[in-house]
Amino acid sequence: MSTVFIDRKDIEIRVDGNSISFYAKGKKDGSLPLSPLKRVVIVGNVKIETSVLYKLVNHGITVLFLTGKLKYSGILNGPLHNNGLLRVKQYQKSLSAFSLKFAKELIKRKIVSQRDFISEIREIKKALAMQADRAIEILNKALSNIEVTPISIDSLRGIEGAASSIYFITYSKIFPNSLRFLRRIKRPPKDPVNAMLSFCYTLLHYEIVREIQLIGLDPTIGFYHQFEYGRESLACDLVELFRVNVDRFVYELFKAKHLGNRDFMKDEESGGVYLKKTGRKKFYPLYEQWVQQQRTIWRGEVQEFARRILEEKDIISG
């Protein structure tokens, strides 16, 4: 197991040699060796000794902190790749024509993946054939517009937004009505499907952040997502390539009845719907099983991007 999710508020975490141990009410309640770990995800309010954090950092283990409602709170990394040249090249290319070139490639690939999944949906639910055909027609038109019209980052965002809208209209139709999933709603999620999409997108984002940092790139300097203070814009860029993978995974979770309405709760104050602890207990091993193969793909994409940053010729805009 390369990732462990710590989601118990009644425990305290301590160092125990080359392991971390868990204590409940002063008594040892299990331990975990550090050697196979790559990531630790801490959910909610957990007591943890600073020596544990030192140990995790020294072993190159990434720690992701999430709130009890599964929102991002912070990230802690061990030693990162100090590749100064790679970052200099990244900064240069962010000011060059490479930004628009890369952004066009990115959104084309995203729309193609959406179109391909819509084609699968057409077979999954035959009653959606006409709607799926219409969605595919619109997505093909979006791909054509990227090639034949004068494109800026702003106009590309408009094309992407319209494509995602038609995609989600069709995607929502493959879920049972009992889940109340009608469209994509982000903050807060209003139904179980939106809750899982948001949670899985969050996990994907910080998986990508980790790969970006480990190779020596700056996660804050993006190309399609321009610089915005406090945002990992490059991670936002690369996440776009894999959103449909998440969408397919979330669909399979509900299709196989791994999760259902009973696994979610509604926060009366915000109106948001969130995965309950019992649901999270079921979700974590399913996510880890799915993500093992995905990580190889994600890492390869980051490595290919770093190669392009170093090798492609710079063309300065303006």
Would you kindly provide a written description of the structure presented here, covering whatever features stand out?
By secondary structure, the chain is of the alpha/beta class. The chain folds into 2 domains: 3-76, CRISPR-associated endonuclease Cas1, N-terminal domain (Ribosomal Protein L15, Chain: K, domain 2), CATH 3.100.10; 84-311, Four Helix Bundle (Hemerythrin (Met), subunit A) (Up-down Bundle). 52% of the residues lie in helices and 14% in strands. The chain has 9 helices and 10 strands. The protein has helices spanning 50-58, 84-94, 98-124, 129-148, 153-171, 192-215, 233-239, 243-255, 277-311; strands at 3-6, 11-16, 19-24, 27-33, 39-43, 47-48, 62-66, 72-76, 264-266, 273-275. A 4-stranded mixed beta sheet has the order 1-5-7-8, sandwiched between helices. The chain is globular and about 65 Å long. The protein starts with a strand and ends in a 7-residue tail after the last helix. The model has no long low-confidence stretch (mean pLDDT 91).
Provide a concise account of the structure shown.
This protein is of the alpha/beta class and 318 residues long. It has 9 helices and 10 strands.
**Number of structural domains:** 2
Q: In which order are the strands of the major sheet placed? A: 1-5-7-8
* Fraction of helical residues: 40-55%
Helical stretch count? 9
Radius of gyration: 21 Å
How big a fraction of the residues is strand? 5-15%
CATH architecture of the largest domain: Up-down Bundle
Assembly of the depicted chains: single chain
Shape: globular
What structural class do helix, strand and pairing data support? alpha/beta
Global mean pLDDT: 91
